[in-house]
Amino acid sequence: MRAGCARSRVPEEPARGAALGQGRKGGLKNHMEVVPRLRQRQNSTAAVGERDQEASFGKRPILLWLLRTRGYYELATPGGGAGHAPRGGSHTQSATSRPAPRGTPPPPSLHPRDPPSPTGACAAVRPRPFTLQPWSPAAKMAAPSVFWGAAVSYRLFLGGRVSLALRQGVWKAAAAELQILRLRHTTGVTAKKNVAALRRETYTVDFIKKQIEEFNIGKRHLANMMGEDPETFTQDDIDRAIAYLFPSGLFEKQARPIMKHPEQIFPKQRAIQWGEDGRPFHFLFYTGKQSYYSLMHEAYGKLLDVEKRQNQLQAKGLFSEKTKTKDLIGSRWLIKEELEEMLVEKLSDQDYAQFIRLLERLLTVECSAEEEEFVQRFRRSVTVQSRKQLIEPLQYDGQGMAFSTSEGKRKSAKAEAIVYEHGSGRIKVNGIDYLLYFPVTQDREQLMFPFHFLDRLGKHDVTCTVSGGGRSSQAGAIRLAMAKALCSFVTEEEVEWMRQAGLLTADPRVRERKKPGQEGARRKFTWKKR
Amino acid sequence: MAPAASVSRLLGAGVCAGPLRPRLLQSATPGRARPSGRTLASAATPAVREPEGSIDLNDRILNEPLKHSDFFNVKELFSVRSLFDARVHLGHKAGCRHRFMEPYIFGSRLDQDIIDLEQTAAHLWLALNFTAHVAYRKGIILFVGRNRQFSHLIETTARDCGEYAHTRYFKGGLLTNAPLLLGPKVRLPDLIIFLHTLNNVFEPHVAVRDAAKMQIPTVGIVDTNCNPCLITYPVPGNDDSPPSVHLFCRLFQTIINRAKQKRRHMEALYRLQGQEGPGARGGGPAHPPSLGAYPGDRSSPLPEESGSHACP
């Protein structure tokens, strides 16, 4: 983590130490001592560090530009900057202490609750010309506009439902002049726990609309930057572009930068439920749970319709007792959370159970297409794991010889085997005869096992490729691959026998990690009485 | 006529329609800006003329129905015979009888209480008339009932009239703590109609007491096992048989739709007359709707005072 820039090591320890020491005391007053120290260090190593960083980004100029404008590291000359108070912040690291490409987007330099101060942010900067080299040969030389910069930058928050209303002002103001931001070294100042922020944020309709507009503009700019067509830039493309431009080493997927449509980010909220005269819009408004009860009302209405239709048919004598069994295996009912999300309303468990019971009752009676469609709205598909062994299809090579290909894995070894229908029992592993590739008898026995089990020892030729693992793992991987490939030449009963013998199951055992405080995975240190 | 006599007796006994009216007037029309002396003084001259004219118009629209005893022609909607055919007179067993329902009970046959339909008709007339007036003044009407057999019907009725229904579990502070449960500036119902006064465990519905607390007038179908005390316009009748409940729902739906239609007609009429100039006439009472039109109103602005007393 500390590789890369030379100057990162120098100010890191004392700065952090200072931060820790002073931050604990409520360190807002102490930051002034920290900042000058930083500047002195940076004076000497500024050129070197800069060059180092640029060298590491040489292949990714766009990233470099973005990092510069987003203020990952300081490039302003010392002395010219006004002392800018680092007002609280969630991070105690300075930008210089971590190499930028592996870091997350920088935290907003100002406290979220403070008003944006464009003058303060850009007080110490000097404008720097930059060149944007083409990322791909076909890319246009579009200089991304600052507006996009603002749009993208503030989109890149860490996953969760954070209030953007305050941050976006900061980012826009800061990036508007396309100048290099000065990163403030935030010490260990902890922000006061703001009780008001714990309340759920309400977003106005105008705010959401504005967010959507900005997202669309930002999407187009991103497409331009990546050299793609803005019209056909899908969400997958956006995700890939952001992952490329802002690679994050964080394990938690939700903590990585994302850029999604505002409707997926901001929780859905209810607008005001009544008009100017005070009359509510929905006829079940006074129940408190209008969406849920109207859904129940609708479902029950459909049930009554179906029963009425059946009664009419029965009266005419046309009623047929056939009950068609619907195939419900590949789908499941909506879970309570999904239903709550759909209705934008809180439900209790009993409410949910009641609703599902009503839908199931609707399914038991014979209903028309309309009712079926209504019920299907509340079912989600589920990937069904079939118990049947997947049998590879037979292929035919140039000579008309049938063969079957399959893959197998064991520990870290991966193998692919091609079993020919007619042969004399020759096995070639990576182009080498198996006798020479596996000198140990045990490994060759493993290779023999599938054929021996099916009494087809000298009847098939095998060509396989294997990589990774050790000798035993490779043998096991090839064995699995061969057994799977053999399924195509063999009856279903024999496939079932093979499955029961364990030939078709991948061995899930992997090396268990060593734990701290123990000598190995299981072995403990020698216990000494005294 | 006996119903008319009982109606006048009931009115004389202080079935409170009077004291509630001013409050209803205020609550039913919250959106309209009544200019007080302050606004009149401070508003500019051209702006003053318009609100004055419209308020005058509005006042006339609102006061017109009050000049007639049966402006919405409620009488022709039902008769004692139709109530009898709908089995409204059938009460519960004598053991379930509520003490306060004794005045409304005609007698008991084979231990089953029979409700006096003459009284029912009178009470029903009052209730429907009141409902019509509330609907005419664009009040919010809430249908409440907790019998699961008729829950769907009541909700459908409410939706078809353009009003509101609550036939589900009634949360405790819904009326008394409405700003917290429903929203900060919610408007409460101006009338609550109970199709069933009891809840699922045969206890008085919480909304009866809460409506009385919040001074919301109530109309309620009270069976022989119900307590009619806190209900403003009780209507003794059967609330358990399907034909009876269907009849009541139909009656309420019809009268509400009629009242709203009448309001639209009056507004159109007064707007036209306002455009034509002063000296406009008020519209007559509701005629039985043949095709939903009131031929007497627009075409011939003749004094319709005599028409109000003419029974169809």
TrEMBL record, chain A:
The keyword Repeat does not apply. The gene is MRPS9. One of its GO terms (biological process) is translation. Gene3D superfamilies: 3.30.230.10. Residues 102-118 have a biased composition (Pro residues). The keyword Ribonucleoprotein applies. GO terms for molecular function: RNA binding; structural constituent of ribosome. Keywords: Mitochondrion, Ribonucleoprotein, Ribosomal protein, Transit peptide. One of its GO terms (cellular component) is nucleolus. PROSITE patterns: RIBOSOMAL_S9. InterPro entries: Ribosomal_Su5_D2-typ_SF, Ribosomal_uS9, Ribosomal_uS9_CS, Ribsml_uS5_D2-typ_fold_subgr. Belongs to the universal ribosomal protein uS9 family. This is Small ribosomal subunit protein uS9m. It comes from Panthera leo. It is found in: Mitochondrion. It comes from the Eukaryota.
TrEMBL record, chain B:
It comes from the Eukaryota. PANTHER family: 30S RIBOSOMAL PROTEIN S2 PROKARYOTIC AND ORGANELLAR, SMALL RIBOSOMAL SUBUNIT PROTEIN US2M. Keywords: Mitochondrion, Ribonucleoprotein, Ribosomal protein. One of its GO terms (cellular component) is mitochondrial inner membrane. This is Small ribosomal subunit protein uS2m. SUPFAM superfamilies: Ribosomal protein S2 (SSF52313). Residues 276-285 have a biased composition (Gly residues). GO terms for biological process: mitochondrial ribosome assembly; translation. CDD domains: RPS2. Belongs to the universal ribosomal protein uS2 family. Residues 26-50, 274-312 are annotated as: Disordered. One of its GO terms (molecular function) is structural constituent of ribosome. Required for mitoribosome formation and stability, and mitochondrial translation. It is found in: Mitochondrion.
